[in-house]
Fold each of these.
Amino acid sequence: MRTGLYPGTFDPVTHGHLDIFRRACTLVDRLVIGVAINRDKGPLFSLEERVEMVDSTCGAIAREMGVEIVVHPFENLLIHCAQDVGATVIIRGLRAVSDFEYEFQMVGMNRAMNDEIETVFLMADAEYQSIASKLVKEITRLDGDITKFVPPEVATALKAKYKR
């Protein structure tokens, strides 16, 4: 069984992330969505909220693709998380060339720590490449329409956060 790990903060999960989930499912038998705690980023949603959002959006994809999808929160090194969940491949989503520089450095460091775990880069469909969680939050905060960017349950959760 080939297990892949797709890590991120998913604050919040977007249609771009969901597109990568689907694409990743064509490469693996089991997909672990690693929800990073990452205190440095100061997420809008708590870890529990982000895990729930990712979990609620994955069920339909798992059934559609015939792949087991597991949501796994983590705070350790990415390579250690991959080892913990038995992943042989780390899946990273790329939106633009600017993402590549950081990702390139991360791959080098991860391979130095464990060269048995491969990293695969996937590009979201062109329709979703401009979507960034940071921009979705900004649009929501300024009372814009985010229905093109996130699933309905995520839009509801975002609007509720900013009404407080």
Amino acid sequence: MTDTNLVTPGETSHPGRWWHTLDDGRVQCDLCPRDCKLHEGQRGACFVRKMEAGKVVLTTYGRSSGFCVDPIEKKPLNQFYPGTSVFSFGTAGCNLACKFCQNWDISKSRDMDRLMDSAGPEQIAAVARRMGCKSVAYTYNDPVIFAEYALDTALACRDAGIKNVAVTAGYIHPEPRAEFFALMDAANVDLKGFTDDFYVKYCGARLQPVLDTLVYLVKETDVWVELTTLIIPTLNDSDEELRRLSEWVMSALGPDVPLHFSAFHPDYKLRDLPATPATTLKRARAIAMETGLRYVYTGNVHDTEGDTTFCPGCQQPLIVRDWYDIRAYAVTDDGHCPHCGAAIAGRYGKFDKPFGARRIPVSMASA
């Protein structure tokens, strides 16, 4: 938690949800397992939720670190309407403290002036629709911490016929989790490692709440789920840990949940470690597939085989990718292999010209 009674220039104060008052006059935030207990003017570990006038408020509602149109594969979601574009945005702050954060300038920001653009939920939905986006992604930093803003936007998007995507670490309590994911159509969840020691030492969190979220999403909702694990040399890249992680996904979630192994690049507080070799990602993918997982990908490296979706029935390549570019596409509109008829897990529709690897920044002031 952060002790400060200062009002940061430019911040907003939107009523927060999921909190209660303690006997000593403090308030407890009930959004995530951190259970931050706050005095007046004090901020939670996420920095963007604080006690103000005896209540919890969200200080980033309606303000963003940037809006952008991306390929859906960049989230990464390889089996959720492949080839479509997604309208992406985030705010600032995070409820984890990952020493290897690849977006640390946003997620660890303590400067609300980084939130250079602003937009309300209806405007976001309208602009996303006008730009032809299939979905809106709550990303860059974890949407759990700006849940009120994300949920209002998700409602506006649903009214506009636009899908909702969460890119999250899944660190959230059961009650807000149910409300949050009830409005999401897809999620990419970071499974950052597979030991509690790793989560405590390198993320400032615990593993079990993340596993609970994953089981909930796959077993109790209709949300399409894909997982991402950033492979960090010497920290979570052993054959033993990769096998245990893959076996857990297989047994607890099933063989059809896609798993992305992504390459680490030295950043933030782990600049002394080397980048992940492509051979490590290929090894991780082979281990995961040996356990029975049907859709395993590599990321942040050039690996066409690791980017490609194969039919689990006849092993034919169905969606051939080069980074975020789709070079060949052969899944039927209703999600089947045209060669053998096997069902291909995911969400599909009529495939037109793919959006490609473009990234289009959007200024909401002029949109």
Amino acid sequence: MDYKIGEHVMYIPVGVCTVTGFEDKCFDGRNKKSYIALVPEAGVGTVCYLPEEQAEDKLRSLKSADEVQELIAQIPSISPCEAAPRNDRRALFSEILKSDDTPRIISLMKLLAQSRSERESAGKHLSAGEENAMKAALTMVSQEFALVLGISESEAADRIMMRLAG
């Protein structure tokens, strides 16, 4: 797919980025390659360079407004993902967050939201790893939803969290 300067894209697993250019660079001192320059929405001053040959696997256009609205409507019916044993959770969280599978990311958020609720009723908190996974998942999904729907990221996050709660 051909991307255009100024276009917003999803760069897996970085999140929403803006295409800022196409450049030939030599990062290893020997081999010049063609790169797509990307600026993450969340990374002020950061530029990511993605080799053009990896674009098909790592970039995609943003969802349409209709697709986003449909996903938001489906949140209550998405089942929480299956909890992994404590030793395997970090790998599971990482795998899901790198998947670019929005319903699966939402299923992770649903699992973590339920776990948070259960633990809070027992006077406990999520682990730092679980909190970080929830924050990363919510950021990834709400960035795209906000941009597509023309709302703030916090408003998109609030909509998602309301639907997660039922």
